[in-house]
Specification:
The mean pLDDT is 91. By secondary structure, this protein is α/β, with parallel strands linked by helices. 27% of the residues lie in helices and 11% in strands. It has four helices and three strands.
């Protein structure tokens, strides 16, 4: 999807969590291509590769603990671009995702459904 605004509008939802709850999923794999809109620098316009950045998704999701009591799926950010700092488990960005209660997928990771 291009933007959260478009996706949520298409599903008549006001938040990512409302959309995920509507879908009744236990695990959600969200686009993690880019951490931020300026990640590509001057090499290429983000408009050429429209993906919602992880930082925006996190701001919209909030901390997982804020949703306790709701049906809160496990969220994994996946499809990371090589420029995304989430590739490094030692990065501040990776630690931020984990501290917020969400996850970063790993290559070869499997899920039991």
């Amino acid at each position: 999807h291009d933007t959260w605004e478009k996706t949520l509008f298409m599903h008549n939802c006001s938040s990512i969590m409302e959309w995920l709850n509507m879908l009744k999923v236990d695990i959600a794999l969200l686009d993690g291509t880019f951490w931020s809109l300026d990640e590509l620098g001057s090499r290429r316009s983000i408009k050429e590769v429209p993906h919602p950045p992880v930082s925006e998704s996190l701001a919209m999701l909030g901390n997982r603990k804020e949703h306790m009591g709701d049906n809160v799926p496990e969220v994994y950010f996946t499809h990371l671009n090589h420029t995304n700092p989430l590739f490094g488990e030692e990065s501040d960005e990776y630690e931020h995702v984990i501290k917020m209660g969400w996850n970063v997928s790993r290559q070869g990771q499997t899920f039991i459904l």
